[in-house]
């Protein structure tokens, strides 16, 4: 029997890594708190399907997905709508979350992964500073490696000893609070845009959307501050005034959820431990997409674990996972997270100005649909951003905010470049402090 791997929580990266490791001969068990068939949320998600192939997962059957419609972005006053024009071969797919899980689970089981449902992970079990297992509602389980895929509030990450230097909390504005519901189709003409994404609508800091689907209207309310159902319903009523296709009968959803929208976790690994997915804050800051990143990270993690021929699974042998992740995605997300701080400083009037002045174009919005493409286009070069801002902004207050953003992005990018390429405890801990400081 191969080395024993525990996957705590059936996060998307966890189940994808589980499949790769089981295929390579590891003895892998996933411990998931929910009951079989009850995973995920009652809604659809969009993600780049190419990421599945990276994790060795086949494409789902055609009957289970459709291609995402281009989004149109609006500022708070709805004066200008900027539509994406994503090339056909680069489109993301839209799938029911439950179908995504069925697909991932089916694949993992076929590779030999074992799943224990209804088993709530409560805390890590430590031997000195090494994670050697998990405490759960069903008893204690031990393994050679624990992969933490428990999501943003993971009971493992948040209970690791401080001495490991792994951040426990998401920090200020580190999460976006979401309410999502599908309504029946209201009376009225189709909306001018099928998939409207609104920034700071109703003057509230956040992002919301109204998607005019065939059978229902999909409403998402996202805010940087927690809010309750009464506020979600009040806001939906505001949206109805300009979106009569939002009917009054809630067909599905009506759930609250949270997404991390901050820089990736500064240290992803410890002896016997690796975090993946929302537990390691791997979402695209601002946007909150996390699934494709999970699949890519799963491949890097699995390759790192397989390469550890002696099965030590300690910080030093797991460190290449961190280096690989930051190289592929993390450094870019960290830079974007630094820019996000400025978005939260903008007033609704300034957001309107950005839309109306042509500072952001449909081309920029289209590139935003493909993160790799976005990097290639702007290279997230702070100097280039300052030049662009100077050419487009006449308001000195707004210009100051943009220059501040560019400087923060430069700091975050420089911090990522300084990350030690090889594990050395002291150097990694002091680097993590520098990295975290870049976002203060
Ligand atoms: C409203 C909403 C819409 C989103 N839309 C998109 C989208 O369209 N595209 C996209 O790419 N991303 C989207 N995301 C983000 C995406 O869901 C996540 O980034 C991605 O799934 C990675 O999260 P995860 O799987 O690591 O964690 P999670 O999805 O949180 O999964 C964690 C798993 O661990 C289990 N778990 C948690 N705690 C315990 C415990 N104590 N014991 C045992 N099990 C536990 C949970 O039950 C769950 O199964 C959305 C998120 C939300 C909330």
Summary keywords:
about 450 residues; alpha/beta; FAD/NAD(P)-binding domain; seven-stranded mixed sheet; six-stranded mixed sheet; about 35% helix; about 25% strand
Shape: globular
Count of strand segments:
19
CATH-assigned fold name of the largest domain: FAD/NAD(P)-binding domain
Q: Biggest sheet, strands in spatial order? A: 6-5-14-15-16-13-17
**Named CATH architecture of the largest domain:** 3-Layer(bba) Sandwich
What does this protein structure show overall?
This protein is an alpha/beta fold and 440 residues long. It folds into three domains: 4-65 and 94-169 and 264-326, 3-Layer(bba) Sandwich (FAD/NAD(P)-binding domain), CATH 3.50.50.60; 175-260; 337-417, no CATH class. Helix content is 36%, strand content 23%. A seven-stranded mixed sheet has the order 6-5-14-15-16-13-17. A six-stranded mixed sheet has the order 8-2-1-12-19-18. Strands 3-7-4 form a three-stranded antiparallel sheet. The radius of gyration is 22 Å and the shape is globular. It starts with a strand and ends with a helix. The relative contact order is 0.14. The mean pLDDT is 91. The structure holds flavin-adenine dinucleotide (FAD). Flavin-adenine dinucleotide (FAD) is lined by residues 9-13, 31-34, 39, 45-47, 120-121, 149-151, 155, 178, 180, 257, 259, 277-279, 283, 288-292, 294.
């Amino acid at each position: 029997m191969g080395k024993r791997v525990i996957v705590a929580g059936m996060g998307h990266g966890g189940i994808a890594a589980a499949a790769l490791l089981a295929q390579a001969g590891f003895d892998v068990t996933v411990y998931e708190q929910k009951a079989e068939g009850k995973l995920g949320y009652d809604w659809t998600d969009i993600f780049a399907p190419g990421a599945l192939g990276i994790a060795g997962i086949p494409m789902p059957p055609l009957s289970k997905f459709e291609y995402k419609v281009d989004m149109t972005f609006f500022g708070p006053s709805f004066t200008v709508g900027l539509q994406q024009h994503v090339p056909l071969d680069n489109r993301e797919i839209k799938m029911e979350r439950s179908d995504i899980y069925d697909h991932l689970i089916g694949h993992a089981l076929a590779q030999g992964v074992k799943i224990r449902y209804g088993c709530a992970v409560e805390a890590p079990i430590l031997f000195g500073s090494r994670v050697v297992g998990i405490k759960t509602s069903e008893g204690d389980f031990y393994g050679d490696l624990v992969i933490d895929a428990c999501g943003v509030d993971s009971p493992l990450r948040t209970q690791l000893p401080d001495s490991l230097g792994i951040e426990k909390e998401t920090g200020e504005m580190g999460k976006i609070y979401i309410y999502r519901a599908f309504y029946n189709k209201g009376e009225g003409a189709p909306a001018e845009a099928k998939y409207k994404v609104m920034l700071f609508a109703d003057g509230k800091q956040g992002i919301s959307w109204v998607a005019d689907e065939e059978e229902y209207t999909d409403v998402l309310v996202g805010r940087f501050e927690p809010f309750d159902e009464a506020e979600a319903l009040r806001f939906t009523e505001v949206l109805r005034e300009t979106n009569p296709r939002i009917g009054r009968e809630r067909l599905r959803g009506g759930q609250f959820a949270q997404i991390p929208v901050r820089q990736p976790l500064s240290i992803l690994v410890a002896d016997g431990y690796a975090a993946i997915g929302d537990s390691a804050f791997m979402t695209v800051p601002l946007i909150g997409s996390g699934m494709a990143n999970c699949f890519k990270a799963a491949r890097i993690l699995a390759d790192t674990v397989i390469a550890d021929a002696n099965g030590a699974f300690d910080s030093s042998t797991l460190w290449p996972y961190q280096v690989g992740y930051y190289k592929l995605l993390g450094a870019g997300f960290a830079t974007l997270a630094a820019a996000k701080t400025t978005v939260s400083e903008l007033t609704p009037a300034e957001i309107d100005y950005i839309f109306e002045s042509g500072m952001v174009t449909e081309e920029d919005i289209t590139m935003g649909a493909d993160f790799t493409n976005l990097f290639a286009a702007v290279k997230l070069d702070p100097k280039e951003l300052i030049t662009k801002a100077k050419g487009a902004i006449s308001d000195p207050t707004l210009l100051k905010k943009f220059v501040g953003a560019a400087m923060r992005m430069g700091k975050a990018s420089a911090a990522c470049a300084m990350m030690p390429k090889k594990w050395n405890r002291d150097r990694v801990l002091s680097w993590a402090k520098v990295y975290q400081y870049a976002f203060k």
